[in-house]
Amino acid sequence: MARKKLIKYETLLWTLHIAITILSIVDRFTTNVWPRQNFRIGNGLAGNDRMVGLKPGPWSVAFYDIVARVSGRFSICTFNFMLITR
User: For residue 40, what are the β-bridge partners?
Assistant: First the structure.
């Protein structure tokens, strides 16, 4: 008698991918905990872009800031997920 799968492999991977992507995008707007923040070059830090709010300026600057943050984290997560699952 064959065992019935609890969850399909494809469903598991899509769930993981969406959850990790959403968490990393939320992280970019809130705490910005990312491994790059810990790298040091000499006496300085390599990653020091901890921004609390959006960039000041007109609505187009804020819109660009949001799109850049979301697309950056989405691209990083998608590329890494593609390499892991290929």
Answer: 45
For the stretch 8-52, pLDDT in tens is 988 999 999 999 999 999 988 887 776 666 667 777 766 666 566
Question: Is the pLDDT reported for residue 73 higher than 80?
Answer: yes
Angle, in degrees to the nearest 10, between helices 59-85 and 9-29 = 150
The answer to whether position 56 is within a domain reads yes
Residue that the structure tokens 């399909």 belong to: 8
Q: What is the pTM of this model?
A: 0.73
Nearest-angstrom CA–CA distance, 28 and 16: 18
Bridge partners (DSSP) listed for residue 45 = 40
Enclosing domain of residue 59? 52-86
pLDDT score recorded for residue 3: 79
What is the number of structural domains in the chain?
Answer: 1
* 5-22 core/surface letters (b: 16 or more CB in 10 A; e: else): eeeeeeeeeeeebeeebe
